[in-house]
Structure formats: C-alpha cells, structure tokens
Amino acid sequence: MKFIDEYRDADAAKKYSELIHNITTKSWNIMEVCGGQTHAIVKFGIDELLPKSIRLIHGPGCPVCVTSLELIDKSIEIASNPDVIFCSFGDMLRVPGSKKDLLQVKAEGGDVRMMYSPLDALKIAKENPGKEVVFFAVGFETTAPANAMAVYQAKEQSIKNFSILVSHVLVPPAMEAILSGENCLVQGFLAAGHVCAVMGYNEYYPIAEKYKVPVVVTGFEPLDILQGIYMTVKQLEEGRYEVENQYSRAVDKEGNLTAQNIVSRVFKVGTRKWRGIGEIPDSGLVLQDAYIEYDASLKFGLAEIVVEEPKECISGIILQGLKKPHECEAFGKICTPERPLGATMVSSEGACAAYYRYRKK
Amino acid sequence: MKNFSLQCPIPISDYPNVLLAHGGGGKLMHNLIAKMFSAAFSNDILLQEHDSAQITLQENKIAFTTDSYVVKPLFFPGGDIGSLAVNGTVNDLAMSGAVPLYISLGLIIEEGFPMDELWKVVKSIAAAAEAAGVKIATGDTKVVDKGKGDGIFINTSGIGVMEHSLNISPKNIHSGDVIILNGDIGRHGIAIMAEREGLEFDHKIESDCAPLNGIVNDIISSEIDVHCMRDLTRGGLSSTLNELADSAGCAIEIDEVSVPVHEDVRGACEILGFDPMYVANEGKFITIVPRQQAEACLEILRKYNPESAIIGRINSANEAIVKLNSRIGTKRILDMLSGEQLPRIC
Lengths: 361, 346
What we know:
A: 11 strands; B: CATH 3.30.1330.10; 7-stranded mixed β-sheet
C-alpha cells in the first residue's frame, strides 16, 4: 500500500539497524513519548534490531492510559444516568474504573455509544433534544482540535443538550515532569509525530536546552522509528542536544495553525491529574470560561469527586519508564487484557497491553 | 433457480409489517409459512409438513452443527443475514469434510419488522441454500414484542454426511505440516464495520461471505491427506490459529508477508486502528496438510481464488504458541483477541 509499504521495507530496516549499530559506542536510554510508537515498536519488534546498549523506555503518551481514575469514575456516573447518551472513543470503554467499566454500564442498560468523531456525538444531540449527550473528550493535542470544534459548533448552533467530559492532556509538560523526576533515566526523546503535526515543534527547543536532551520528532512506521532512533543516537554520541524533525512529510515547525486556533478559542491550559503519576501543573486543557456551560463535570455536579489509585498497579512507574511491564509482579498473572488492573493493560497503545499481546514476558 | 425475483407472495399492502400474530400459530402464521416460506424453500422434505423432518441417510458418519446469526446491519455489501445464516452453517459442516445436506431454519422476528425486508431475507436464504446445494428441511417462526429483538435473529442447524475416512481434527496436526489460506482476509469484518459506522470508501468493500463446501469437496476428492481445516470467522485468522495451537498443543509460525490482504481492507484497517489478522471473515478457511501435498492442495484452492497462499507451518515445540515473522524481519507473538477489537483513539 502506498505510503505504508515504503516505511515497512525489510531491507531498509536492516540498513538502518546496521547504521545504528555502527555509530553506537555507549549505552543510551531513549524514550518514545507516544503510545502509537510503543505499539509499533513492540508489534514490529523494532527493539530486536537495536544494539543491546540502547534501551527504549516507553513514555506516557497513551491518552487512555493516563486518564485519571476519577475521570473514569465520573464517566461511569454520567453514563449510568438514564437521561444521558454517553459517547466515547472505542478504547475508553474497557478501562476499569474503581468498580466497573463503561462496557458494564452499557450491559446494565446505559446508553453508551462508540464514536469515531465528537462531531457525530453533536449530531446525536441534535437528533435527541430530550436527552443529554455527553462526549468523553480524551486525548493529547491530536484529538483536541476535533473536540474543540464540536463545542464551538454546539455554541454556534445553540445546542444546549451537549457537553464534554474533558480529559485533555499535553505532551511537553509530561516530558518536563519526567525529566525533572529524581530517578529520571531518559537521555533522549522521540517526540510524538502526530502531536507535532498539530502543534509544530517550537515548544521543544526550551526543553532540549534546559535538560540537555536531544528531541527528534518521529513518525510511527518502523522506518520512521528506526530513523528517529538513529538521529537521536547520533546526537547523543556527538554530545549534541537539538530539536530535529524526522517526520518532515507530516510535520513542520509551526504546526497546523487553524487547528491551534480552534483549540485556544475553546480550551485553556490547566492543571491535570495523570493516572499513576499524579497532578502536573499546566499539563492539560480545560474549557475557556466562555464555553464552561459545555463542561459535563460541572453540568452533572461531579467536579468535587476525588478517587485514589489502587496500590497494586504500578502503571505510574511504567508510564515514567522506570520499569518495564514484565517487571511488574501482577503482569500476566492477576493483570491481563481481559481483567486489567490499570489502564496501561487496556489500550493497544498501553505499554503493558502491547507487551502482553506481542511478547507475554 | 426459482422465481426469486417475484413479488412477495404475502400481499404486503395487507401487512406491511410483521405482527405478533404472524408467530401466534393462527391463520396469519399459517399464511406466512405457506405463502412465503414454503414457496421459497420448497423441497420434498419440507413439504412433508410434519412436526419433524424425516430424513434417510446412508450408513455414513454424520456431522451436525448449529449457529445463530445476529448481525447488524441485516443487509451489508456482499451479503445479508440470510446468506450468512446459510453459508455459516454450511461452512461449519464443510470444515469437518462433511457434505452438507440439510439445514433447519429458526427465525426470531421483532414485531413491526417490515414484511418486504423479511421477504428479502427469505429470498437470500433460498438462493444461498440453492448455491450450496442444501435443503431447508425444517423451520420455526417466533415473533417477539417490539423492542425485544433487533429486527430479525436467525438460527440454523445443519446435517452433513462424511463420505471420507480422513481424520480431520486439530489432534491430527503434525510438526512439519503446512498451513494454506484460500485468499485475502478481512473483507467481511470491514464491510460490516463500514456499513455500521457509515464510513465510505472509494470502492465499496464487499463481504467475502460464500459457501466453502464445493472447494472442500474438491480437496478431499483429490485425495489430499487433510489434517485439519478451520474457517476464519469472528476473531479472524489470528484467533483461529490460536485455537488450533491450543487444541493441538503445537507451535504455529506464520509469515506476515504471505498473508493476502487487499489494499482497501488494509487502508480501512489503518484508518480504524484494526489489525487485519483479527478482522472477521465469512468465506475463508485454512487447510493444514503434510508438506509433500501442499502444492497440490494450493493448486486446487487457486482455481477458486488465485490469491490462495501458503502462509505458515507447524513447528515442533512443547508450547502452544503462534509466532509471526513480521514484514521487517523480526518475530513476535500473534495472540488471541481479548474481548472485542476496539478502535484506537489516535
């Protein structure tokens, strides 16, 4: 298939593997930020092609995995309301809350629907004026423009029975939180290509400078990732810490300004609690005051709910790259994709689920 | 083929929708059976009009199977619930090497279901049964209250005779055997998904729903020593391979590049975040044969579908596991699907 097969070519992958072997003289820890990249690395076995001295650390870039338990519990509370049609992206439905998940709510009679776009949820709101329609607005900078557009259109069209449960997170603050951690092992980053397609990569210059880490904007196909690793290792070996762009076919420095405009019109930066990590200041998006009537958490009076994470799940440590999934006591034993303890075992982008599915070790 | 292009024999103007009474045992039900079902499925066994069909079989071993069909939407590109209900059961029989002969037809219809849609389903069942060479031997109709069904549910059971002496079973899978697939995968699942979600592609992706008894008959009558066969249904190729590895206690190795997937299906999977290895099929199966007979078997399969291919092999191992040689030359586990395949967010 055009634009896919070229980036999955076995000979080219082998060449990149050799190039990386040739330039590597020391041990390096590189974090791929995005869950989509983790999935590709494990699915294609990309780490098998690397020198043993290069360790890939799987980052916190799976929006499903980092959505806090209390937001999941809020979603379950709202979805259980008989007057609500609750709409969500598919992989949120199986994420365990404190007591159950959204699929169980559906089985108990809740009107829970899987969507590909928040604009479809808005359409449902128009068609069902007697119901409250709530969209679970999860994601990084990638899904924010579409979610913003849904709220913007709702206001423009005076649709009152639509709201969103906002769980938006931002990549750069998470990278900073990891870098400023006491036990930080990360020496270089593969930045998330699709986030940069929206936001550009100007935000990474201060991070690269302050923490002296190379940041390479990287795509998602095997050759993208191998090239991104090559560029990162080259910088590390040469003692450079610059922002480079491997994914130039999709990303430019400024990003998608139209998308950025709609996001900043509807959302503003706010504090966000990350599952397994805790609160990170200025690490999420919340609705602007002008759009606050579309905040489902306020509309349903759930703003004050606070839930603590379970003790046995170490997803926070996994998400910071301090441990690999198979180093968890629960992995594959009491925690499996069928009965996940934490969100990293749920989404196919979660590091634990990816390891379980493709390695079982 | 019978006159399936005729108008529905029930005067639709009288009853544009199915009523509870159409399953109530009275005149309406009698009319529905006589005018619609008996007319469409007419055969000597059904026309016995007994409480049970009486069938004479030779002294062969018999294969017997049942399956229920609840697909949504009822009509999709390349098929509908009717053809699916016939082909699904025919294929289950064919996978044990049996020649499918008779199927039963249980309809659970939701009150209010449009009569012309019922007629479309009935026509499709009749056409599929004719194409597969099976008779509808007996049937049952129930109508449930509005809101208690989802249009129509169908159950079919089937009987076939085993005219061969092969031992077609996971237990007969041996190390060194070769796995052959009869064409490209993923079309049925993507066709349904696209229809259900209102997704449109440049070219409509059609389900691969088809009967497999003809191909199987060709393989068996060519004296191929078939060790096992299995059709790929809901969990896709990956789940079928895992089931077989578990039952046979063997290690399976698959070459990703040799598994045919059409461009449009691959494209749809990339967009939706699906892996074609886990997407449903309705007219695809794998045949496991000794290595020496792989080419002969492949030749037969290619007469039906030139994309048929040898996709892997059985290795000696103590562990029941499916491994995939990836496109870029690495190895990984091909695991069974947990729960439903849910689309990814980004």
